[in-house]
Amino acid sequence: MTSIYSSEFRIHISQHSPISFNTINQESTQINKMLRKSLSSNLLDSLIKSLKIQNPVLKSATKSFSSSIYDWDSSSAAKEKVDCVVIGAGIVGIAIARELAFKGREVLVLDSGPTFGTVTSSRNSEVIHAGIYYPHNSLKARFCVKGRDMIYKYCSEHDVPHKQIGKLIVATRASEIPKLNELLVRGTENGVHGLKLMEASEAMDMEPELQCAKALFSPLSGIVDTHSLMLSLLGEAENYGAIFSYNTTVLGGNIKGNQIELFVTGSQNLDNWNEGDTLQPELRLLPEVVVNSAGLAAVPLARRLMGLDNSYIPAAYYARGHYFSLSKTKGPPFRHLIYPIPEDGGLGVHVTVDLDGQVKFGPDVEWIGDVADIASFSNRFDYSVCPDHSKRFYPEIRKYYPQLKEGSLDPAYAGIRPKISGPGMSPSDFVVQGQDVHGIPGLVNLFGIESPGVTASMAIAEHVTSRVLLSDVN
């Protein structure tokens, strides 16, 4: 295939040698974390220098950063033709880049963070979901079930740490038992095999510390080291020729006819941004394909693509979830994942056992309002976990773990869910939006990729890549 990159671009990217995923997967988790830091070089700075682009200055203007209409002054920014641009280097973006590169496409991945997987992909429960909760034939159900099998197979073949430990979904009172029956029916319809309703005695024989009225056992649920999984997928993507540029923010774009133009700048230019300033692009990319896999920034980014009808873009909602780790115990009280009945906005404060046997509880659901574009673009969310927040956790956890001791919950971490349904609304499905919806060739928007996003990542990648290649044929 003939490269559509300029000679300067190709000379630069050839100097960025790919990592060996086979070697990395044989190393310890600690070494993996050290290697991840080595991947955080800013390719945009070198790219700009290789293209002899002058660094622009921020110009004062009356438009706010969150405005939907922009007076872009991009005349001084150099243009570069590229094949496929994936925006976002979370687990879904990495998986898509790997799949596209494997199919022979030239792929450039842009992420505003200092390295890959710094946002939602590294702030979750690290659970491989079976596919129980989601409406039959929904994208969440289909991608979760298929992605679950793909991840188990991939992890086994590439020595990615994981374990199929099973899950108990528990009714803590008689009034919740009908919901277990509903989940059994739904999971079975979705193709989740091995589900079993258990009487309280049977479930508590499996987990002596558990208290429940009845339980639904899912043997296909498991846990995975998401960082090792991302690192392995990224290594393969790079070995297939994909390029990852960190500290690189896509400000927005312009769509004229069938051509998408992306306005790109270094993330450091957002550090001292003040409302009322207009950010000018350092680089204009002219891609054949754009996959908006920006997670928390996916919706605001889509709204900054001039020429894309906003009626196709859903509202964005953000829900913070806190996690607490269990301390002051002689050993882990549970061997399986323990989940309560799902709640509004999430799956309830559940028990997660990591690969080291450490027990965590979470996440809860705390809705966040008034999120500016710059917060989502630069991941400027509050991820702190106040110790006093544990007061909300103790009564919820004691519904199924009554022996939880006071003072045994330590603040762990928090994550933000990129939701497209708000408080009191019915849970939304994944949105994978292509030309058949918005009419723009080459543009794929991914909205609302929350849980089970990790589990579904490889299935989403396969689906998106098939759509992109199919659109090329058509």
TrEMBL record:
- Keyword presence, Isomerase: no
One family from Pfam that matches here is DAO
UniProt keywords (A-Z) are: FAD, Flavoprotein, Oxidoreductase
What's the cofactor? FAD
SUPFAM superfamilies cross-referenced by the UniProt entry: FAD/NAD(P)-binding domain (SSF51905)
Q: Family per UniProt?
A: Belongs to the L2HGDH family.
Name of the protein in question: L-2-hydroxyglutarate dehydrogenase, mitochondrial
Protein species of origin: Spinacia oleracea
Q: Which gene encodes it?
A: LOC110799881
